[in-house]
Amino acid sequence: MKDIVIRLPGGGSDNSVKALSMESLAAVLHLFMRALRNANGIDAVIGISKAGHKYPPAVIKASIMVLHTLWGFRDLRHFYRTDGFDERDFLTGVWTVKRNTTPGNPKPAPAMASM
């Protein structure tokens, strides 16, 4: 994890004022993805995203966002496929906001809709 933090702006390296380029971001995500792979973390994040009501909605939403972000970098997809994952594993759901239709209660209630 120290390798990842050092590569981020303000992460303790001398070049902390340098703008984060796409190459730097891809390198950081590659290190993060590799650490996640080595710890079987991708399986865990996928499991959380499909757990339904076992976890709080914020946890499920965060896991879905992590998976969508990881899948969004095309350069990393080869590694996922090598490990036996495919697009369906990473794009597990869509986070939506379910509106409460009760009169006098305009606050939205979070809900998750499966794809």
Automatic annotation (TrEMBL):
Species assigned in the record: Stichopus japonicus
What InterPro entries does the record point to?
A: ARM-like
UniProt-recorded name of the protein: Putative catenin delta-2
